[in-house]
Design brief:
It is a single chain. With 348 residues, this protein is of the alpha/beta class. Helix content is 24%, strand content 28%. Strands 1, 4, 5, 6, 7, 8, 15 and 16 form an 8-stranded mixed β-sheet that branches. Helix 7 links the parallel strand 12 and strand 13. The chain starts with a strand and ends in an 11-residue tail after the last strand.
Length: 348
């Protein structure tokens, strides 16, 4: 049986965490003293340094998630930090920098809105970087989704053309940067002409203002259509996105920012002949350690930009982070950073 390895000095018996006891508004996010999670064999306990704030966690707080979510629950579908305890044969060592995400973390078991979190070992990605925690904390879910969509979903290659529908979302901005790093030509959409500069700053070659239909704009630039398209807006525009893609090109359905996940009276004949439609809903394993290392190096060298909207300090600011995320007024990722000073008041 594998023996555990632990950081020097035992973890405390209790920790601070944001807990949703029952669904509700921002007031449902409560800071509580709770037991530090006990690590099961095959799992890793992580001392959390930072975490991103996501729509999924807002959905959990409101009680609008699927039945896998139970209460009380510590939200948080992603986080970065250092290994506190792991199985000896896991390949992970105490103090090692790691990222984790997805896998029902913060949904069926407690997540990263806390000083410590435990997750399955296969859900842990080790890395080494000198980048600050507020930058690294923005990456896991955002980059995993973008990278997985472009690789598993679209098999994007250097020299190809890519359309990103929903380009000013965090995944859209990340996908643009990763696609440019791959060597693709990128077209990306925004509903506001005023936000076209954000797309250019992310490396987009051709920003497009999306009025609800963009296939004609795409084909004015590329009469044959794009090689690949990443659909982040959803089913309400999927037919139009399909019409922007060339014969034998591929559309990957990854998100539904507009809120529509199904198509009434769907028929396969709505897909243009010879155009491929796939989807992406991946896991932490879709962002291998070597890929994350490459992305971290690209950020360090300035080749890849991280779209951070705002950085918050301490669990007391989680409510502010979720409120700002819901308002939609500041584009980019909202990141909460924890450190040894996160030992202030026990109440909001």
């Amino acid at each position: 049986m594998s023996q555990p390895t632990a950081a020097a000095g035992a973890a405390p018996a209790t920790m601070r965490a944001v807990v949703v006891t029952r669904p509700g508004g921002l007031e449902a996010l409560e800071i509580k003293d709770v037991p530090v999670p006990v690590r099961m064999p095959g799992w890793v306990r992580i001392k959390v340094k930072a975490f991103g704030v996501n729509e999924s966690e807002v959905t959990t707080r409101k009680g609008e998630s699927d039945a896998v979510v139970t209460y009380p629950r510590v939200p948080g579908i992603e986080g970065v930090g250092v290994v506190d305890e792991a199985d000896e044969d896991s390949g992970l060592r105490p103090g090692q920098q790691v990222a984790t995400m997805m896998g029902d973390m913060g949904r069926s078991y407690d997540g990263a809105y806390a000083q410590y979190v435990t997750v399955p070992a296969e859900q842990v990605i080790p890395f080494e970087t000198g980048l600050p925690w507020d930058v690294v904390g923005a990456l896991p879910e955002m980059f995993q989704t973008a990278y997985g969509s472009l690789t598993r979903g679209l098999d994007l290659k250097a020299g190809q053309t890519l359309l990103i529908r929903g380009g000013t979302s965090t995944v859209g901005l990340s996908a643009a940067g990763i696609a440019k790093d791959i060597g693709a030509t990128v077209l990306s959409t925004t509903r506001s002409e005023a936000r076209a500069g954000e797309l250019r700053a992310a490396g987009v070659d051709h920003p497009l203002v999306d009025s609800g239909t963009i296939a004609d704009q795409v084909r004015e630039l590329l009469p044959g259509g794009v090689d690949a398209a990443l659909e982040l807006v959803g089913c309400s525009v999927l037919a139009d996105t399909l019409n922007a893609v060339r014969l034998h090109g591929t559309v990957c359905f990854t998100g539904a920012l507009a809120g529509q996940w199904t198509i009434p009276d769907f028929t396969p004949f709505m897909i243009p002949g010879g155009v491929r439609l796939t989807s992406y809903n991946g896991a932490a394993t879709d962002l291998p350690a070597d890929v994350l290392a490459h992305q971290l190096q690209a950020i360090t060298e300035g080749r890849l930009q991280v779209p951070v909207a705002k950085v918050y300090h301490g669990l007391e600011q989680v409510r502010d982070a979720q409120a700002d995320l819901e308002s939609g007024t500041t584009p980019g990722k909202h990141v909460v950073v924890l450190d040894d000073r996160d030992l202030g008041s026990r109440e909001w």
